[in-house]
Design a protein that fits this description.
This protein is α+β, with helices and mostly antiparallel strands. The chain folds into nine domains: about 80 residues, 2-Layer Sandwich (Phosphorylase Kinase, domain 1); about 200 residues, Orthogonal Bundle (Transferase(Phosphotransferase), domain 1), CATH 1.10.510.10; about 160 residues, 2-Layer Sandwich (Alpha-Beta Plaits), CATH 3.30.70; about 220 residues, P-loop containing nucleotide triphosphate hydrolases (Rossmann fold, 3-Layer(aba) Sandwich); about 55 residues, no CATH class; about 100 residues, Orthogonal Bundle (Arc Repressor Mutant, subunit A); about 110 residues, no CATH class; about 80 residues, Serine Threonine Protein Phosphatase 5, Tetratricopeptide repeat, CATH 1.25.40; and more. The chain is built from 57 helices and 26 strands. Strands 13-14-12-15-16-18-17 form a seven-stranded mixed beta sheet, sandwiched between helices. Strands 1-2-3-4-6-5 form a six-stranded antiparallel beta sheet, covered by helices on one side. Strands 20-21-22-19-23 form a five-stranded parallel beta sheet, sandwiched between helices. α22 links the parallel β21 and β22. The longest helix has 22 residues. InterPro entries: AAA_16, Kinase-like_dom_sf, P-loop_NTPase, Prot_kinase_dom, Ser/Thr_kinase_AS, TPR-like_helical_dom_sf. It comes from Polyangium fumosum. Keywords: ATP-binding, Kinase, Nucleotide-binding, Transferase.
Length: about 1300
């Protein structure tokens, strides 16, 4: 209807407000009283739509309540369009409010009372809404305490119950009561009570009570599943309110409040504090222990509707009972299912839902598949879908995710054209069904078509423990490598990789025993990664050192220090022993006091300094140990190791290359994802284990089962195991136990089959133990089970489980006074862990964290993970900060950032947030991720006290990014703020770092006008305190090299400053600072012509460019130039290619330009002038090119153009580059090459006088620099070994003569 139309001589259409399935709703004006109204228009309606419209008019016309939208009138227009006029409401639907988040408890109670009062008014007149949901609750003024009910179109009026359409469902699936889902005839006010319960649940929980993506899944959950506990989801909910909502959601209508009035009365009691309804004890009184509920395999089977299912009644007829309307086929299928002990419900849409549970996932899948095939024979071509998932059989969700999987599989296979439809399967179920089942896969997914004949076989008893078989070749390889390592001697590493269950640990165990037998003087240091502690700084090395030092897990700090000092003193002189012991103490939980130890105190105040000192101490100690006897370091499960330990081992393999040091590491194949450059460039032999061969597998089976086992049984086990050692062990045990059921073929299924044979308390104990990880403690498991379980009972059960080869006791414990136990295989632990319900998993981690914290757990990452998974974010954050600090101190910036960001996402307190932001900001700046660094830096400066060290770090990150983005005024403002600080002594090093970095970056950007005042400020700040603070002194010296070399053209002074910075960094023990200083030492060695020395100085260590990305491109550029000047063009080209590729990958245009002109320079040196010109031109065209790089690239281009005979272009480019150099006064940055190039271009263009003038200036410049260089060797190399300098002097001799 058009705007402005007036009908019924009263209502004027203003605009369309919305449309629905059968109607349009317009906002109109009631011209009689000048008030807005809502007009609902229905035209071209079907008979069903007309009947529904009549019902809505009748219902609203008979109701008058402030909580129900008010009826104003209705009628029919001349064109047959029918209309209904209601009051106009301003606000929004409850559904829109909930889309933004859940309601408060107070708002929910207010809404519940008002909606219940409205329902009570309707129920008193025998009207049942039948479609109560958030979309049909309108909040006036968007206020939860002002709701109004809408849409009575499918309401039940009195005793008349007419349906709405031939295929429609009366109600909305997620809010329909079970009796509505079943299609029962008697649906009364209690259906509205159920729907209101669903609405209140979503208001409180922020999620539906019965979620699902598919209709069948939702309907089945309404019938079979209970919603989660509201108190678990939201602890602030009054327990009486939760009890009321859960009673409203009862499956049986008799267990619900009788109608809306009864709900109002209970809410009034709750608000008055007089409520007495308590279903179970309040949370505060619940015992803090794991429940007996566990997640077990559940199978769900859905049978889709057919044309014979639930035929709809004729329009206007009374709603027939479910029993009369259900087809004979439906009832037959239901009876067949229930005869097999499988619950089955006929759903309102004509489909059927069944579910069943069993002990093992594989056995359950096979059983459910057979039931499905038997029912399909009766199903008359109806679609079937079968899925296995995990449900809590004794808890609220017996179906778990199985019903959702089945519904998804059914939807994927809709439209199958087979006369006899296959049974749709989800991927998990398809994997659980073995070869006897005919499973096919096509574009729609997996489907089951039948079953083949069963295999025959018997099983025998388990024999004796089995030997290591099938690994003779690998053992010989390892033995040969170890022998060579000792005889040469030469450091050697071997990496054994294999998937879980293939026998890595068994191979390592056999090799170590053999190696120590053949080399009895060798010392074995053994350590292993742990999934729970993956990434914990220095954990791998710490374990190995403790073994070497004889430190027991229960030793206290004093005992640990004594053992450490005793061992180290036997290897070193007193002064060295003190240093080595004190820094090794940092990673073996034996910290020394630092009151009288300046290096130790300085390292504890500086992350990178501590990393470098630990590294030096470890290498010195390991080297001394190797001098005494060969060292065999065994590292298991390196994929769960930590980067600092991996780096230490890498450094040892490099630094101790001539020592008898052997590393045996085992890992899963994904270790390269965690450590992509693992020991790259070292002597490393990789061994990849494959599945055991048939002969080896047979030997293992025979050794366990004995010769009495039939060949048929042996062959069957070998065939099913497919060479997996763990599969073999499980199948052997199953055969010995005499279980004739088909065995699982996946690891999860096998684990479930084994655990299902245990009694309930044994499984509960394993579930509790699994919370801790692969290793746990008897006392910790008992803490999760509750104090009602005695210590002796837990011990007895653990012993019994060890006898069943599920667990093994360890000789030593990491926690003093606590017995340590390990799962025999990680997959057994994973199987037990998957059986925990979500509620128990959360509680378990919370209890585990508390217990570990009180029993001396020192690994912050372990504690943080437990508290985080236990939904205790405030406690997790504190430990994550410690974990991030550890990683940062160890130089693993990526892990440090990951941990810090993980903590930031949990909402830390202000003080902790400052520490976390400081870590992220500093780490990202060094990695050259400047935008991210600046973002965190801005948050840091807003939160940290001005002038504090964190504030300075944040400001430096913002300055660096602003300068990179050419926001000059902003960067200068930040710099002024930093420079104006009067720093406290503990902040001086940080301020020195900030100002030094500022000078470096400003010179690169060509802003020499700002640099001198900063350096004067640095002189004033650091000069008086230089002797007392080596880090401040180091950064002070580091602010000068570019200024001296590029602007003052004094590379000797620049080299002296760089060396002084390097010495200060070394004095402080700072590896990061040392790397920075070496870049400038190498730069000046190249500028002075010491090309071989410069190339060596600038050669990167492992991960150098990743850890120090902010200076990585300069290091690479200077090395390219040193290699080129030394004639090593192939190496130079490789280095330039790596520089360019890294910059391209990181999207850094400044570095990309640097890489481009470096490639151009190498091409020019090789005589490839066209290639040189192309690269130089490309560098200059990049938007992010820095001023000095622009000038240097122009010089390369000019030289290449001249060589190609394009003299005019060459001269123009040389003049332009000369102008660029003059603008930034940076002739020290390859300005000598530009001058000689300009002179040659001028000469080629015929401007010989000007050419000679330029050459004269160039020669005088060289002599001036040479005079400032007191070292005769450097003075000579500067004049003779820098190609452009030698060429300048050669041309000057020819053009100017010796006398000029």
């Amino acid at each position: 209807m058009r705007e402005g139309t007036v009908f019924a001589e009263r209502y004027e259409i203003l605009h369309l407000a919305g449309t629905g399935g059968m109607a349009e709703v317009h906002r109109a004006l009631d011209r009689q009283n000048a008030t807005p109204v809502a007009v609902k228009l229905v035209s071209d309606a079907s008979p069903v739509d007309d009947a529904r419209f009549d019902r809505e008019i009748e219902a609203l016309g008979s109701l008058d309540h402030p909580g129900i939208v008010r009826y104003l009138g209705h009628g029919t227009l001349a064109n047959g369009t029918r209309y209904l006029v209601m009051e106009w409401l301003e606000g929004e639907e409850l559904a829109r409010t909930l889309a933004r988040g859940r309601l408060s408890v107070e708002d929910t109670i207010a809404l519940a009372r008002k909606v219940a009062e409205a329902l009570a008014s309707a129920h008193e007149k025998l009207i049942v809404h039948r479609d109560l949901k958030p979309e049909n609750v309108f909040l006036v003024g968007a206020r939860p305490d002002q709701p109004k009910l809408l849409d009575f179109g499918i309401a039940k009026l009195g005793r008349h119950t007419r349906i709405t359409g031939t295929d429609s469902i009366v109600g909305t699936p997620g809010f329909m009561a079970p009796e509505q889902v079943r299609g029962e005839a008697e649906v009364d006010a209690r259906a509205d009570v159920f729907a209101l319960g669903c609405v209140l649940f979503e208001c409180l929980a922020g999620a539906p009570a019965f979620p699902g993506d598919h209709l069948h899944a939702i309907l089945a959950k309404v019938l079979f599943a209970e919603p989660p506990s509201l108190v678990e989801l939201r602890p602030d909910i009054p327990y009486e309110l939760e009890a009321l909502v859960m009673r409203m959601l009862a499956k049986d209508p008799a267990d619900r409040p009788r109608d809306g009035r009864a709900v109002v009365e209970e809410l009034q009691m709750l608000e008055s504090g007089a409520a007495t309804v308590r279903a179970v004890a309040p949370p505060s009184l619940r015992p803090p222990s794991l429940t007996t509920t566990e997640r077990r395999p559940v199978a769900a089977l859905l049978i889709g509707r057919s044309k014979h299912s639930l035929p709809p009644p004729a329009l206007g007829q009374s709603f027939e009972s479910r029993e009369r309307r259900a087809s004979e086929l439906d009832r037959s299928l239901q009876a067949e299912a229930e005869a097999r002990g499988v619950p089955c419900e006929i759903l309102r849409d004509g489909s059927l839902a069944l579910w069943t549970a069993g002990a093992g996932a594989k056995d359950l899948a096979a059983r459910a598949a057979r039931i499905a095939m038997e029912l399909r024979a009766l199903g008359g071509g109806r679609p079937f879908a079968l899925a296995v998932g995990w449900g809590s059989l004794a808890g609220p969700s017996p179906l778990g995710d199985a019903i959702d999987r089945a519904a998804h599989a059914l939807s994927e296979h809709r439209g199958a054209s087979d006369v006899e439809c296959p049974i749709a399967l989800d991927e998990l179920t398809a994997g659980l069904l073995d070869a006897r089942f005919e499973v096919q896969k096509d574009g729609a997914g997996f489907s089951l078509h039948g079953e083949r004949a069963a295999l025959l076989g018997t099983r025998t008893l388990l024999g004796n423990p089995t030997p290591c078989v099938g690994r003779d070749r690998e053992l010989r390889t390892l033995a040969g490598l170890f022998e060579d390592c000792i005889e040469e001697p030469a450091a050697q590493a071997a990496l054994v990789t294999a998937a879980a269950g293939l026998g890595k640990s068994r191979l390592a165990q056999e090799f170590v025993q053999t190696a120590l037998r053949d080399a009895p003087l060798a010392n074995a240091w053994i350590s292993g990664g742990d999934a729970r502690r993956a990434g914990s700084a220095f954990r791998l090395v710490s374990q190995a050192l403790c073994m070497a030092l004889g430190i027991a897990a229960g030793d206290g700090p004093n005992v640990r220090r004594d053992k450490l000092v005793t061992r180290v003193s036997a290897r070193f002189a007193a002064s060295e022993a003190r240093r080595v012991a004190r820094f090794l103490g940092e990673i073996v939980d034996a910290p020394f006091p630092d009151e009288d130890d300046l290096p130790l105190r300085a390292a504890r105040a500086d992350v990178q300094l501590m990393v470098d000192q630990i590294r030096a101490a470890f290498l010195d100690f390991l080297g001394a140990e190797c001098d005494a006897a060969p060292v065999l370091l065994v590292l298991e499960d390196v994929q769960w190791g930590d980067l600092p330990s991996v780096r230490l081992v890498d450094a040892a393999l490099r630094t101790l290359s001539d020592k008898p040091f052997f590393v045996l590491a085992t890992a899963r194949p994904d270790v390269r994802e965690r450590f992509p450059r693992l020991w790259e460039g070292r002597r490393l032999q990789e061994i990849s284990l494959t599945e055991l061969g048939k002969r080896a597998s047979e030997k293992l089976v025979r050794g366990a089962l004995g010769e009495a086992a039939s060949q048929e049984v042996v062959d069957r086990i070998v065939q099913r195991a497919q060479g997996n050692a763990f599969y073999l062990e499980e199948l052997i045990r199953a055969a010995a136990e005499g279980r004739d059921a088909e065995l699982p073929e996946t690891v999860v299924a096998m684990v479930q089959s084994r655990l299902a044979s245990l009694d309930d308390e044994d499984r509960r104990l394993l579930r509790a133990a699994s919370v801790f990880g692969d290793v746990f403690w008897a006392g910790g498991a008992r803490a999760l089970l509750g104090e009602g379980v005695s210590k002796n009972v837990v011990r007895e059960r653990l012993v019994a489980l060890e006898e069943r080869e599920l667990l093994s006791f360890r000789g030593e414990s990491r926690l003093p006074g606590e017995e340590e136990v390990a799962f025999r295989h990680a997959l057994v632990r994973e199987g037990a862990y998957t059986m925990l319900t979500e509620e128990d998993r959360e509680l378990g981690h919370r209890l585990a964290a508390t217990w570990l914290e009180s029993h001396g757990e020192t690994d912050p990452l372990v504690l943080a993970t437990h508290f985080e998974r236990g939904q205790k974010p405030s406690r997790a954050v504190r430990h994550l900060l410690r974990a991030a600090e550890q990683a940062h101190r160890a130089g693993d910036d990526e892990d440090a950032v990951r941990r810090a960001e993980r903590a930031l996402a949990l909402g830390p307190d202000p003080e902790t947030e400052i520490g976390l932001l400081g870590i992220v900001s500093e780490a990202r700046m060094w990695q050259n991720h400047l935008e991210e660094a600046a973002t965190h830096g801005a948050r840091l400066t807003r939160r940290a006290p001005p002038g504090s060290a964190p504030w300075v770090r944040g400001a430096l990150a913002q300055f660096t990014y602003a300068l990179r983005m050419k926001h000059v005024e902003e960067s200068i403002g930040i710099l002024d703020a930093i420079a104006s600080i009067e720093p406290a002594p503990e902040v001086l090093g940080t301020v020195s770092l900030a100002l030094a970095m500022a000078t470096v970056l400003l010179l690169t950007e060509g802003r020499i006008d700002i640099v001198e005042p900063i350096q004067r400020r640095l002189d004033a700040l650091v000069g008086p305190a230089a002797d007392r603070d080596p880090m401040a002194r180091a950064f002070w010296h580091l602010s000068y090299p570019r200024w001296e070399a590029w602007i003052k053209e004094n590379p000797w002074e620049s080299l002296s400053r760089s060396r002084a910075a390097l010495q200060a960094f070394n004095e402080a023990g700072s590896r990061r600072g040392g790397v920075l200083a070496r870049v400038f030492v190498g730069m000046n060695e190249w500028m002075l012509g010491a090309n071989t020395r410069a190339a060596e100085t600038l050669c990167p260590e492992a991960r150098h460019d990743e850890d120090f990305a902010i200076v990585a491109s300069l290091r690479a550029l200077f090395r390219v130039l040193a290699l080129s000047d030394g004639g090593r063009l192939d190496e130079a080209r490789d280095e330039a290619t790596r520089l360019f590729a890294a910059a391209k990958m990181n999207g850094n245009e400044a570095d990309e330009a640097r890489g481009r002109w470096a490639l151009g320079e190498v091409a020019r040196r090789a005589g490839q002038h066209q290639e040189a010109a192309r690269h130089a031109q490309a560098a200059m065209e990049l938007g992010g090119v820095l001023p000095l790089d622009h000038a240097a690239a122009g010089a390369v281009l000019a030289s290449a153009l001249r060589a190609m005979g394009r003299v005019d272009e060459a001269l123009a480019e040389a003049r332009a580059s000369h102008t660029r150099y003059e603008a930034v006064r940076g002739f020290g940055y390859r300005g000598g090459f530009l001058l000689v190039t300009l002179a040659q271009c001028l000469d080629a263009a015929g401007a010989r006088g000007e050419a000679r003038a330029v050459l004269r200036v160039a020669r005088e410049r060289l002599y001036r620099i040479a005079e400032r260089t007191p070292n005769p060797e450097y003075r000579r190399s500067f004049l003779e070994d820098v190609p452009e300098n030698a060429r300048t002097l050669e041309l000057a001799q020819a053009w100017l003569g010796p006398g000029e």
